[in-house]
């Protein structure tokens, strides 16, 4: 069984509700997954907008998600101190920042990518940013799943 990722808030290639956008409540949308491969010791997640005017824009990066988790709740960024680590996004924040395409742009695609990793923790500092975290995660990736939602201002 392959790793799968879904959200109760939106379905593949359909609009993400406004409450998950920066112009809404900026809440992290709930995610659920299954089918983690044997040997999974943690998960990492990124949220990217490949349609951004200056190239791919990263809205969220989370690592050190425990291997016994199969979901992230709405507003997961309010988790306790010993929870998974959020990495600095392209807005400069170590948290989730939702969709915010420029006004007048066609709908942007927001790709939520979950990786099953063979290590319990990544040792990348939080201020290193999402790209550094994801590059390290890829070295330990056993499987990857994604879901894509759209958003238009």
TrEMBL record:
InterPro entries per the UniProt record, alphabetical: PEBP (IPR008914), PEBP-like_sf (IPR036610), YbhB_YbcL/LppC-like (IPR005247)
SUPFAM superfamilies: PEBP-like (SSF49777)
Entry superkingdom: Bacteria
CDD domains in the cross-refs: PEBP_bact_arch (cd00865)
Pfam families: PBP
Matching PANTHER family: PEBP (PHOSPHATIDYLETHANOLAMINE-BINDING PROTEIN) FAMILY PROTEIN, UNCHARACTERIZED PROTEIN YBCL-RELATED
Protein name: PBP family phospholipid-binding protein
Organism: Rhizobium mongolense
Lineage: Bacteria, Pseudomonadati, Pseudomonadota, Alphaproteobacteria, Hyphomicrobiales
